[in-house]
């Protein structure tokens, strides 16, 4: 893999993260509401002098450029600031909520990506048959059904069929591994269904395109078995767009997890982010959005490297 290709992708990564940091910082301050007024609440002792004092203490009295430089300087040195409400380091607040989101996203991605490949290959093999049409209809339904609605339906169904089963909340894996997986399986399925449907349709399309290529006809002429043609020749080329889409799906998972976490009462980054928005907790909100963006961009960087490994032509 060429060094120039890697350095080019790294430079793109830095530019994207810088742009996101600027946009995030500015957009948050355009959200209606004053963090100082919200913090002081309906206290009868609230005066303009007290509001100015609090605004100066948390640094909101500085020009917007100085606020950004102070924040980004702290980020580059590992200091994400303090929560305006709890006065705890933002990094500690995020660390207390990030693990449930990571577990949910990874489990959803594993379910969706693992099942999508064999399902897409099956749809390609059954092209034009009744079963393939049924699978196509199912994949379209999977794309159109919102994850939060599917989660609500799952909760209602399980509450009716097995009311004694606990399905809401979160149990740490170290405390109860089986209980942890039991609480996450339903939200993971709800979050994975659109990914599964999307990736399966992509694999089917890529497989059908690969099976029309000249090298496939040559392999058949040489007497290569149909199984080897499917899984050794066609699938390898079909995995190139699949790998790229998996990286894009990571962004969907992180955004979709915010809503699904609320449905299943999971104390992850979704709850933390929504709470920070309601409280106008600028340091916590900025750091959480930046963290999600960093993860998304880093995953796509890894995907680019994997893409180049699968198809070395992209490095030329």
UniProtKB/TrEMBL annotation:
Superkingdom assignment: Bacteria
Topology of the protein relative to the lipid bilayer: Multi-pass membrane protein
Gene Ontology molecular function: dipeptide transmembrane transporter activity
Membrane-spanning parts: 12-31, 102-123, 135-161, 181-200, 239-264, 284-310
Domain ABC transmembrane type-1: 98-303
Similarity field: Belongs to the binding-protein-dependent transport system permease family.
Protein's UniProt name: ABC di/oligopeptide transporter inner membrane subunit
């Amino acid at each position: 893999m060429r060094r120039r290709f890697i350095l080019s992708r790294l430079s793109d990564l830095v530019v994207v993260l810088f742009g996101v940091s600027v946009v995030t910082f500015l957009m948050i301050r355009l959200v209606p509401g004053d963090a100082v007024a919200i913090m002081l609440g309906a206290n009868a002792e609230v005066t303009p002098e007290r509001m100015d004092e609090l605004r100066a203490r948390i640094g909101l009295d500085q020009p917007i450029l100085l606020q950004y430089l102070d924040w980004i300087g702290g980020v580059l040195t590992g200091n994400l600031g303090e929560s305006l409400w709890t006065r705890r380091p933002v990094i500690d607040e995020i660390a207390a909520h990030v693990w449930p989101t990571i577990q949910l996203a990874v489990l959803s991605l594993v379910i969706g990506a693992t099942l999508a490949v064999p399902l897409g290959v099956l749809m390609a093999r059954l092209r034009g048959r009744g079963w393939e049409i049924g699978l196509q209809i199912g994949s379209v339904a999977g794309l159109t059904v919102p994850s939060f609605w599917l989660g609500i339906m799952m909760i209602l169904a399980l509450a009716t069929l097995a009311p004694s089963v606990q399905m809401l909340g979160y149990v740490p894996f170290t405390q109860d591994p089986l209980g942890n997986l039991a609480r996450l399986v339903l939200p993971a399925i709800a979050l994975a269904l659109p990914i599964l449907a999307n990736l399966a349709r992509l694999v089917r399309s890529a497989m059908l395109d690969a099976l029309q290529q000249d090298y496939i006809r040559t392999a058949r002429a040489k007497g290569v078995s149909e199984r080897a043609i499917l899984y050794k020749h066609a699938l390898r080329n079909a995995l190139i767009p699949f790998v790229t889409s998996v990286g894009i799906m990571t962004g969907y998972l992180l955004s979709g997890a915010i809503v699904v976490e609320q449905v299943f009462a999971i104390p992850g980054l979704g709850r933390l982010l929504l709470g920070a928005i309601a409280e106008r907790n600028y340091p916590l909100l900025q750091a959480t959005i930046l963290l999600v963006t960093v993860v998304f961009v880093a995953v796509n960087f890894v995907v680019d490297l994997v893409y180049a490994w699968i198809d070395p032509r992209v490095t030329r």
